[in-house]
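Contributing new records

If you add data, match the layout below exactly. Sequence lines come first and carry their own label; structure lines follow with theirs. Keep one chain per record. Anything else will be rejected by the validation script.
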Amino acid sequence: MKLLVKLGGTLLESEERRASLAGQLKRLLDDGHRAVVVHGGGKRLSRYLAGLDHKSEFRRGLRVTPPEILDAVLRVLAGSVNRQLVAELQRAGLSAVGLTGIDAGTVRATQLDPELGLVGKVQRVDPALLDRLADHGYLPTVACIAGGDGGAIYNVNADQMASACAAALGVDRLVFLTDVGGVLDGRGELVPELGVGDALDLIESKVAVGGMEAKLRAAVEAIRGGIGAVSIVNGHESGILHRTICGGRAGTRLRA
């Protein structure tokens, strides 16, 4: 099976959690699956910016990214977060390769909204490099930064970047590993399965807001892009990747 696994930034904060996720990914690849990883790092970025006396601001679940914090975005997402994750994956025995969407023009974006600053909307994904690496036994590990016209650099929401890459790669399954058990309904109860219309209803009714709104919008785009199934699951649960891929009960599954 061809997979894209998106790792939420909160899951990458501890060495223990990174090691667990690396071990789970190693098992999947040893079982013959091919995978690409896309990761965030928002929690660490917020902490880094706070140390610079910059208060993080979010709108519609997206980080406002004025030009003056772009250097910090690159230092944290493409730097410390990506490097530590790649090192942990390699320690688990995987041939992980750290990348951003800028590399080889893999992910191209344009400005999403001037009010959000240098937040990008993905316009095109060239999957050639990711496919070639995965085909030769490597694990592409991509930070959520994209290039644009005229040498522009954009901070892209990791969920949206994962969705766009998954569609371009034609994966069989997109898995969002996050820090919650899945999608909750208006009563706060887990919804094990959703259709596209159900997901949009949760957004419109303001049940899904902030980060979950961004995840659901990205999941809907992935389904519309031809992905057969998208799972939103708790990355803190032991063995969650194997259960998700092998049909066990796990989080919320969006169906085509």
